[in-house]
Amino acid sequence: MSQTTTPATAASLTPPKQWQQFVSAFMKNRGAVIGLLVLIASIIIALFAPLIAPHNPYELFQGKEQLPPVFMEGGDSTFLLGTDDAGRDTLSRVLYGARYSLFIGLCATTLSLLIGVSLGLMAAFWPKLLGKFIMLINDILMSYPSLLLAIIIAAILGPSMTNTILTIALVCLPPFIRLTRATAMVELQRDYVTASRVMGAGTMRLLFVTILPNCMAPLIVQATMVFSSAILEAGAIGFLGFGVQPPDAEWGAMLGTARQYIQSNVWLAIFPGVAIFISALAINLTGDGLRDALDPKLKEVS
């Protein structure tokens, strides 16, 4: 007797596609899912801050300076998280701060990724002269602590959001260069690259069409980690006064303004600090989930 195969049976016998395996592996990591949800919520808050914020973040409420949060004695229900030293609503400024901090982190990470990947591919493709020069510069950048280097560069360039983005992008270059070079050098030894060369593929096609797509998995994970570091470094630079300047509502700048009141009104520093912590933690958890889902060695064999 011939055994008939129903559509349901055929579907069950069909191996899952690569993207389905990725989603399944990612969803099994509860921490990564929670981190992704928090990150999505942060992005939504940043995009719709003008609609969500109860007050204008720059509006000064005279006679309402340094009000405590509503759940503390002396709080005002109009200002759920209290007000800062100038009488501005803390909740509104924290919500608007997501726009600055996430924008700085995203722009710095993207710029660093583009430049770092290009330099890493060139270092792998021309290892003798250009590669040695690129890796020498890379080693010099890595010899300094990243935060110290960021502070030095920010102090030289001057305080502004553009300079903060450029500073963090430069500091975050070394991991991308080193990772891209190492991954590309492995891929250059594979047969498909040799076949592309025999078929007459040009240098740019080899680098950015043939090799780069096969290097993207570790680079995506690295980008999430750099995104988290960029937010932390932007906060540190802003705290020291070299980043976004008041009265703009950036979390690091808010911390810098609140440091002189840290003993008397600690809540002024708590809320922007918690915002930085939650954002960085969410991105790190998402990055861990991406790493586990993209690494074939960490996938469960069914």
Notable features of this structure?
single chain, 302 residues, mainly alpha, MetI-like fold
Outline the structure in words.
This protein has 302 residues and is mostly helical. It has a single domain, classed as MetI-like fold (Orthogonal Bundle), CATH 1.10.3720.10. 67% of the residues lie in helices and 0% in strands. It has 14 helices and no strands. α3 (30-47) packs across α14, α7 (146-157) runs antiparallel to α8 and α9 runs antiparallel to α12 (216-239). The longest helix has 36 residues, at 90-125. The model has no long low-confidence stretch (mean pLDDT 84).
| Structure class | mainly alpha
Rg measurement, Å: 24 Å
Name of the CATH first level? Mainly Alpha
Distance between the termini: 31 Å
Strand content: under 5%
Low-confidence stretches: none
| Mean pLDDT score | 84
Q: What's the helix-strand series? A: HHHHHHHHHHHHHH
Fraction in helix: 55-70%
Task: Count every helix, treating DSSP H or I runs of 4 or more residues as helices.
Answer: 14
Shape category = elongated
Name of the CATH architecture:
Orthogonal Bundle
User: How many individual domains?
Assistant: 1
Number of strands: 0
Name of the CATH superfamily: MetI-like
Per the CATH scheme, the topology name is MetI-like fold
Largest sheet: none
SSE topology sketch:
Layout: H1 7-13, H2 18-27, H3 30-47, H4 49-52, H5 90-125, H6 130-142, H7 146-157, H8 161-171, H9 173-187, H10 191-198, H11 203-211, H12 216-239, H13 251-258, H14 267-294
Short description:
With 302 residues, the chain is mainly alpha-helical. Helices cover 67% and strands 0% of the residues.
